[in-house]
């Protein structure tokens, strides 16, 4: 009797959404034995594929990326050389150098590239006319 009651409680917790009020018919009990960690598309490391699948049951946008832990995110901004060689980005901002532009684009999640060398408002040409 105790065994049946325990299984019924475990099943109820699994489908209940762990207290979140969401019905989760696809959730399953994950074994307690040690398994290999996996990385989810949300950047979180899960103890096993089973745990990731349960999270995917709750949020379909979270998917398997690879076996092993997720790599820690790179710090923002990254380290760039302290060299002043200004470039103008396609966003109209002047950056100290190309590295600063690339890091700003990565950290802010924007699509920015080099529009031209030199500060914005002054275009510098690679070719000199009049020769």
Explain the overall architecture.
The protein has 131 residues and is an alpha+beta fold. Among the domains are: 38-67, no CATH class; 74-122, Wheat Germ Agglutinin (Isolectin 2), domain 1. The protein is built from 3 helices and 6 strands; from the N terminus they run αββαβββαβ. It has helices at residues 2-16, 49-58, 98-108; strands at residues 38-40, 45-46, 64-67, 87-89, 94-95, 114-117. It has a 3-stranded antiparallel sheet. A 3-stranded antiparallel sheet has the order 5-4-6. A hairpin with a 4-residue loop joins strand 4 and strand 5. The longest helix is centred in the N-terminal third of the chain and has 15 residues, at 2-16. The chain starts with a helix and ends in a 14-residue tail after the last strand. The model is unreliable at 12-17 (pLDDT under 50).
Keywords:
131 residues, alpha+beta, Wheat Germ Agglutinin (Isolectin 2), domain 1, three-stranded antiparallel β-sheet, 3 helices, 14% strand, elongated, disulfide bond, serine protease inhibitor, protease inhibitor
């Amino acid at each position: 009797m105790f065994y049946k009651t325990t299984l019924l409680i475990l099943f109820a917790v699994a489908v209940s959404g762990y207290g979140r009020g969401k019905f989760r018919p696809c959730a399953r009990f994950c074994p307690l034995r040690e398994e290999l960690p996996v990385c989810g598309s949300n950047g979180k490391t899960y103890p096993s594929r089973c745990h990731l699948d349960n999270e995917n049951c709750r949020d379909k946008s979270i998917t398997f990326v690879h076996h092993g832990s997720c790599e820690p995110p790179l710090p923002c901004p990254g380290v760039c050389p302290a060299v002043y060689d200004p470039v103008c980005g396609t966003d109209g901002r002047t950056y100290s150098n190309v590295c600063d532009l690339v890091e700003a684009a990565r950290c802010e999640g924007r699509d920015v590239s080099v529009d031209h060398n030199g500060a914005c408002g002054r275009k510098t040409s690679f070719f000199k006319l009049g020769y």
